[in-house]
Write a structure and sequence with these properties.
The protein has about 280 residues and is mostly helical. It contains eight helices and ten strands.
């Protein structure tokens, strides 16, 4: 379809350009104003897929009908071969890994990623890796589960703090962090004398700020059109940052933390005059 000339396509904003689809690799989302238009688009997509020897993964496909911003009942869409793409009802669908319906399902998605993060952390802690490698495994295998949706999901500060607290509790239960171990030093990089664990709260906030900074400074035509809408509807909640100043501020914080935590056995815990927690 020609996005500029097809007047039947949907618009991202009231005065924005018309769009018929969103495509990234093999993730495709189609938009239309009527059922007939959608059936024609699905038929075209099906024919093209057959020509390049690709098949519809019907178990991953779904349809949703939105009327005046509200999800409406729908019977689904028929394919040329007689099969049918079902209506999604209440379970939503995943596009680029984010659970959506007529809008992003924030609560459900946060529950899913939190449970998966906790599962991965627990699996790492059960692996009997050395302390250094436990931290590296959590940072590279568990943290990205939550980091991926940062800036998209509306995380509250209390929710992020709770995840960090849960992580430390699991580490103490499995002997990876002493009950009286210094909490601050846990998050200081190993280069500065800490253990290098990435804080979920800090990671999410930094990603939110990075996304806001990118949108504010981007020259991409589509982002320029959407910028006002994204900011007005608070879809993007981060703070625009100066990268050089942010880097110097972080280095100053790290220097303060590493100085204040000196003399603590970070791997096996021990008495400390700094912040500590109890199970």
């Amino acid at each position: 379809n020609n996005n500029n000339n097809n007047n039947n396509n949907n618009s991202l904003t009231a005065k924005g350009p018309k769009v018929s689809h969103r495509l990234y690799m093999d993730d495709l989302k189609l938009y239309s104003n009527t059922v007939e238009e959608m059936e024609a688009m699905v038929s075209t997509t099906s024919d093209f897929s057959s020509d390049i020897c690709m098949q519809f993964g019907l178990e991953k496909c779904g349809t949703i009908r939105v009327e005046k911003g509200t999800k409406a009942k729908f019977s689904g869409i028929s394919l040329p071969d007689g099969e049918r793409i079902r209506d999604l009802e209440d379970e939503g669908y995943k596009y680029l890994g984010v659970l959506e319906s007529n809008s992003i399902l924030h609560s459900e998605m946060k529950t899913l990623v939190t449970n998966e993060y906790n599962r991965r952390v627990k699996k790492v802690l059960k692996s009997q890796l050395h302390g250094k490698h436990i931290i590296q495994a959590i940072n590279t295998w568990a943290v990205p589960v939550i980091r991926y949706g940062a800036g998209i999901l509306n995380w509250k500060q209390a929710e992020l703090k709770a995840i960090d607290i849960k992580t430390r509790k699991m580490m103490r239960i499995y002997g990876a962090h002493h009950p009286q171990g210094d909490v601050d030093r846990l998050y200081v990089s190993r280069r500065e004398g800490g253990r290098g664990l990435q804080s979920i709260e800090e990671i999410v906030r930094r990603e939110e700020n990075a996304l806001s900074t990118y949108i504010q400074s981007s020259k991409d035509s589509e982002i320029l059109i959407l910028k006002e809408h994204l900011l007005k509807e608070k879809i993007v909640n981060g703070t625009v940052i100066d990268k050089d100043k942010d880097k110097s501020d972080r280095e100053a914080v790290v220097a303060t933390q590493s100085t204040g935590s000196s003399g603590i056995n970070a791997e096996y815990g021990g008495k400390t005059t700094c912040q500590a927690e109890q199970i």
